Amino acid sequence: MRITFERTGGFAGINKTTTVDTATLPPHDADVLPRLVEVADFFHLATQITSPTPQSDRFQYKLTVEDNGQQHTVTVSEAALPSTLRPLIEWLTNIAKRPA
Question: How many domains does the chain fold into?
């Protein structure tokens, strides 16, 4: 499984992009990632999830998951983040903060 994760916006407007692949992650992380994708029901989420009341200085996330020949991209605003997707976003945000 491979995920490209982009976070844009926020108060400082700093963009962050990271790619994670279960083939290169430590074993524990490689086990956790597919479970988070499954809990989020990621492949059934809409491609765009937006808030009815846009808010400035909030993050926007774009995730592309590739797994077993499937690929799905979801763009979601922080204000509209589904609770099922939040653990995956938080996990990816923490991974993105790790030193390369």
Answer: 1
